[in-house]
Amino acid sequence: MAGNIPSGLLEACLVLGVSNERLKDIHLTQLQGKGKEPLVEAEVLQVHAPPFVTKESSSNGTQQDLDSAFCRGQRRRSFKKKRDRPLSTISDSGQTNEPVVSGSDDLSVPQNIDLIALLQLCFPDGLRITNESREDSYHFLVFTDVFGNQTHGVVAQYCKPVHYQQDNGIHQNSQQLKKLQRLYTTFSICVISKYPYYNALRDCLSSFLLQLKTSRMCDFEEQVKEFSAKMALVPIPPPGPLNVVFNLRPFLIELPSRLDVDRPVMDLDLHLPFLCFKPKQILQIISSILMEQRVVFLSTNWAKLTLVSECFMVFIHPLRWQHPFVPVLSRQMLDFIMAPTAFVMGCHTSHFEEVAEELDDLVLIDIDKGTVSSSTSNRFDLPDVPLTARDCFIFRAKGLQLHYDLDVCDAASRSDINDQRAHRRQWQRKVNSVILNVSMELIVNIFSEVCDFLNYEHRVFNSEEFLRSREMTDHTFYKKVLDTHIFHSFLRDRLNQRNDAFTRMQLNIRSSESRRIKTLTVSPRRPTMEAINRKFVQPENGLNRRLGMSMPNLADHRLLTVPIRQTSMGTMTFQSGSWSPSRPIKTFKLPDFPPPLSYQYVQNYYNDLIRDLSKAISGASPDDSALLARYYYLRGLVNSVAGKRLDALTDFQSLYKTDMEIFPAEMLNVLVESLPVEERKTAERRPDLKRLISRVKRESDRERARPVDGGSVKRFKLPKKHLHMEDFVRRVQESGIVRDQGTIQRLFEALTVGQQKQVDPETFCFFYNFWKESEGASQDVDLPVVVLEHLETDECVYKLSSSVKTSHGVGKIAMTQRRLFLLTEGRPGYFEITKFRDIEDVKISSAPFLLLRIPTLKIKTSHRKETFEANLKSECDVWHLMIREMWAGRKMADNHKDPQFMEQALTNVLLMDAVVGSLQSQKAIFAATKLAYFDKKKHEVPTTVPETTSETLKHKINPSLDQTAPQAVDILLYTPGQLGVSELDGGGNPKLWCALSDGKVLVFDAASWTMQHNSVQVGKSRLNCMLAVNQQQLWIGSKDSFIYIINSRSVSCNKQLMEHRGAVTGLALEERTDRFSQTLAYSCSEDSSVIVWDVSTLQVKGQFRVPCVRPQSIQIHNGMLWCCGGDCLLEVRRNGTVHRKVSLPNHLLSSPRGFSSFLLFNESEQLWAGFADAGELCVWHCRDLNKPFIRIQLKDCTAVVCMIRVKNQIWVGCHGRSPEGKTRGKIYVLNKDRYTVEKELMAHEDSVQTLCSAEDRYVLSGAARADGKIGIWKVE
């Protein structure tokens, strides 16, 4: 959400120069011939800051101070107070420590402006009285306070003639030239803004100077004040697709909005660095900034210093420079370069030698010459950015179209200056968008894989493992960057799961296959055969991406054979999720400025502005909610400064229904706190405003409770003290070895066999190092080509034995996730021992050798008669354990159609190996048996699945793979796609939406059942219902009483409906009768209220209460609303009156929870209902509900949770019990015409929470927390 942002363009406007009295003295000196073009001391002549007009008293006589400008209510200090105490700021040795101020002592200046620094920065070359006039010039400033907050300034320097007459009077603009000796003095007008509107403010000053040069000097101060007051009337547009335009003759000036909430304003020409530097030099500068070096920009043009250095601050986004940033240093400030910290500064090229001699480790960047060098040599000695990112950036930069004149050489000349400027802005916007994509791609290519080494639960970054994964040539670069403040802040944002441009582009540039590999597997990092093959066959493209394994039968390995660098540069196109605007930028023109120093005229201006915004709101399409949100935001802003606080609250309330991402929480908190008593009482009487105020308070309290720095970030370190179970679980999760708590607890038992239940630091260290050594050894496996030909591209070698004698010769036994094979020695060869699914038996025997008997492993397989034997000697026991676990895992995976079992078995096997290798004692093998989870489970419970279940089940998905423990699957919803149509146009593959128990929503590609996007967090409460309203909206009802609306295209939640007072339990959509009618949606909540919504406007069309207990779901049939409550089923008319009622059957009247779900069938006129405390269904005849109903008993079912209709069947999800008394989730498939159970499916190890149909071809089931998986079932 947007912060407490300043709402107006102007912070302050200052005029600096030489006072009349001082000019008189200088002129007398010049007449006496005592000097030429003397360097004089500048003075602050004028200061203007909002508010410029106030209403001192309200109509009822109470004192009030209403701001009549968009200002922040700044703290101010007077010049007089300023002069009463010394200032500890930089000044020249010949100057005093106080700013020279002309005029009265009652002038005041905003608290955060340093006048001494400002005097020097506005005249960085010094101020001279000259005999010749100079052209106007502009340069740009950046001020940073002690908290890192930036303020920006645009300075216009213009020359004024000064005339001196015989009577010692000074006159300006006089026509009596013959009696005058002409001198010229320079004035600086500095406009300070919280936002870097460099181009816009330069245009404003240019327009003002045209007016100033034709006016009398006696009107100078009044004109500057009037200009400042006009600038204070300009509101800042919120982030998004709306820019603000205002008229300052002769120019129409446009204020661009921020591209995104996390982006600063970008009123820059981002192609300037590409005109000054070659791509290689640009990369060197970015590298210097990322490594937090002391960087000095040099130029003979003061304006270039700020503009170019600001561009580089944009290029490193989302990393933020957090050290001193002073792009313009005057000659008096050069000792800033002696600062002992990192910095980015700029100074005039004439100071090059002086600067270079001061320090040895400066990075000197000459903008005019396009060179980057060190202060100790002419070369750039710092590490380059990683090779892949560098090559990709250079490739992109070569394709940039940077010359406006070339692009418009075939265009007609424009006669209107504003048309010409608008066309230039449009071209610049397009160029900026492309450059932003290029720079963001660079940052993503450098830091994308950082996220794979983060532990989000404990906020830990495993830097050593990340470095180990990088190419050796890139280590120096990463070692320097990983220790910087800006990288630390970047990590903090990643751990806070910030959904910014980096995250969106990271998702876009990863192919769907590589995303699937990362998301759907949890296997330890080992190189696949495809990666090994690429490393040997195509060394120029061989990058160690350390891909995990893919799910069986889902990967098309042909898609994975494209070299990564080729994909990155040659085939990747920029996606809409990056910086290209997804829709055209609109503009809103402000009314013409009124006399800005008159309170009444200013109020009329605000009323006109409110009227224009209201007109724009009424004329905007309801479907364009993003544009509507910007209009509401601006109108709320104007209402707040116009004193219409309640109207402002109403406008900001509308952001919840249009785009809550730009909701200004802190600004609204200040507005609420400032409400007078009477207005506060009025707001409390309005339910909508009362809810808003209470929510603002809650958010404010929650914000205050959050860490100021956004949360800590830790680096992984090995423990130095004994670890009990809880500490051990945390440490293992931090290490990245495994995340599942159950597995870690079994590992704890293995490492503490025969001792006190705590792991000493030495044991943990041995275990961790052995694990990492094994991982490194597997990456160095050198397989001959003849072996690679027999393996799948996604296979990984996880374990390699020592050289042993086998029944098929001498060699090493290798284990992948699919098979065992022998890597023969001597002449390299391949002999497949077995696939794990083909194993029939594994046992340990012994073979005679001289006078000894050597342990031998025997493996019997189904596809070979003879038994494979291997004399594994001391390795025999651990290989026996590992093979049995993999065998059991494969059987479980095949029987349950769940590949995660195989992944988990593989993790168990590698943990066994690490335990045995680290303990090195007689108890090591016994300790490893603690990890044989599937081998034990195979003996404890039958692994076979009933035939009907096995035939119907197609696949299982675990949506909780990135969690430390399974999460309940509360809702599933399938939305169809449209193949051949892009995502932006509402097409693409079908999607499966999955709501987990913690308010998290996951999205799967329903064509391949693979995870498609990062999760979307919608509140923190349980989600109860989900409804696809149209191709763009997904409504989700939550236990916290809100309805969250997800944009199904961008997969983001930026709207909320807050009218319900209780948990939202049901949603239903009424189909439109014709294309001109409104689409209506219905929602019900636990407090028995039903709300009717207009889908297009999200406005409430009606509201009523239904007389039932705890409504759980609603449906619409034949224009009537059916509601399922705990005590009854109701058929309700649209006005809320009850038409018919179905009460609980007599034998269930004592049921505490009553009805749980229901279905209606129009063609057969049947009403089916299930019960929360009984394993049965009841069927009523809709024509006559008083007829006897039909009861259908469900075997081994204790509660009906949900049911859906699929073709001519009814699928019922239940809570059941196994004969052993364990909870089981069962699905019953019934024939709706014969009222019989056709199938009984053993679906899950916990109750079935939700069911949904995928176009009547598949049914998807979601289970409660103990299971937490999604089942995919075939429909016959």
Automatic annotation (TrEMBL):
Q: PROSITE patterns per the record?
A: DENN, WD_REPEATS_1
The protein's GO terms of the molecular function aspect are: guanyl-nucleotide exchange factor activity
Keyword field: Cytoplasm, Guanine-nucleotide releasing factor, Phosphoprotein, Repeat, WD repeat
Q: Kindly list the places in or outside the cell where this protein is found, as annotated in its UniProt entry.
A: Cytoplasm
Q: Where is this region: Disordered?
A: 76-103
Question: Which residues are in the UDENN domain?
Answer: 72-501
Main location, first listed in the record:
cytoplasm
GO annotation (BP), single:
regulation of Rab protein signal transduction
- Signal sequence, start to end: none
Q: Name one GO cellular component term.
A: cytoplasmic vesicle
Which InterPro entries does this entry report, sorted A to Z?
A: cDENN_dom, dDENN_dom, DENN_C, DENN_Domain_GEFs, TPR_DENND3, Tripartite_DENN, WD40/YVTN_repeat-like_dom_sf, WD40_repeat_CS
Q: Where is the composition biased (Polar residues)?
A: 88-99
Q: What do we know about how this protein assembles, alone or with others?
A: Forms oligomers. Interacts with 6 of the 7 known isoforms of 14-3-3 proteins.
Q: What PANTHER family does the annotation carry? A: DENN DOMAIN-CONTAINING PROTEIN 3, DENN DOMAIN-CONTAINING PROTEIN 4
Under which name does UniProt file this protein? DENN domain-containing protein 3
Q: Which organism is it from?
A: Carassius auratus
Q: Which gene name belongs to this protein?
A: LOC113062548
